[in-house]
Amino acid sequence: MPAFNAGKTIQKAIRDIKAVYGKTSLIVINDGSTDNTKNIINKFDVILIDNEKNLGIGASLKKGIDLGLKKNMDLFLTIGADSQRDVKDIDLLLNEINNNGCDIVFGSKFLLKGQKIPFLRKYGNIIINVALNKLFRANFSDATSGFKIFNKKVASNLGNLADSYAFDIDLCIKVLKNRYNYREVPVKVFYHKNSSKMKNIFFVGSDILLTIIKRRIKKEK
Length: 221
Fold this sequence. Notes:
41% of the residues lie in helices and 14% in strands. It is of the alpha/beta class. The protein has helices spanning 10-20, 37-41, 57-70, 90-99, 119-136, 152-155, 167-177, 201-217; strands spanning 2-3, 27-31, 47-51, 75-78, 104-108, 148-151, 182-186. The protein has 8 helices and 7 strands; from the N terminus they run βαβαβαβαβαβααβα. The two termini are 26 Å apart. Helix 1 (10-20) links the parallel strand 1 and strand 2 (27-31).
């Protein structure tokens, strides 16, 4: 769980997971927050990684995953600290990866009808999905989803992925190039006044689209 200035939401995010998966190891990465995020994290029985400065969501996720590998964890779930997800949907991801031989399972908010998604996020995601699917002959419905579960094989091969918000799209491309077995499942999303916000959504979108183009040109796996 990466967290940057999530003081208004992270307590609920951690409590919700602990209520359902109390015995599961939860790694929380405080990504150089300047609010009370770290103080709130310290109230809980979680594994804390504390970045002295803001490194980016991708860099934070990679640090958390690397620690999980060192602790010999078998499955890795990524979820935001802004309480936008229903933790009950974690079971949907778990069932899919455990019962259908998947290497990675993505939670897709676009596969569930009737969800209220802000205009810029909705159509920005659609543009990114179209670009990825056209250039890589894929069929992702929610390529930028930060809600996913994957096995150790995938977790061990993430070192060269983007440190920024482009991490999620970079991971999709890695999945395609390495021919990992993947699926998407419909999950709920709840946008609210304290949902995480990007400082410059157009810059982030451009960075993601540029990453798609660069990865299409390069041939490394």
